[in-house]
Design brief:
105 residues, 1 helix, four-stranded antiparallel beta sheet, 7 strands
Length: 105
């Protein structure tokens, strides 16, 4: 599955952010795929983009989002398709239309 995401390939100001198509992996064991309806932009994102807090490039931005579950991997029992969910402190890359993450229990 493909989705669009805000990504950076180098550090700098807002001009280094790119709207790109990215591959979204299928939900694996213990994971869910979420169609984001909102994502947060916080000071840490600007620090990471500027290089103050280093990231491995290329990188997505954003650590939190909210949306609807679109796919469920094997072993996930606490959620169902269509559930509205929110997450934080996920790996960088919440600023995308769809994300696959591992919920913590």
């Amino acid at each position: 599955m493909k989705a669009n995401a805000i990504r950076i390939h180098e550090t700098g100001g807002p001009e280094v952010m790119r709207w790109e198509e990215v591959e979204v992996p299928p939900a694996g064991p213990g994971e869910v795929t979420i169609k984001n309806h909102a994502c947060g932009l916080n000071f840490i994102d600007t620090y990471q983009r500027s290089g103050l807090y280093p990231l491995t490039m290329p990188s997505g931005l954003g650590l939190e989002g909210a949306g609807v579950i679109e796919a469920i991997g094997p072993g996930v029992t606490e959620f169902k398709l269509g559930d509205r969910v929110a997450y934080c402190s996920a790996p960088n890359g919440a600023m995308r239309l769809t994300a696959t993450i591992r919920p913590s229990g």
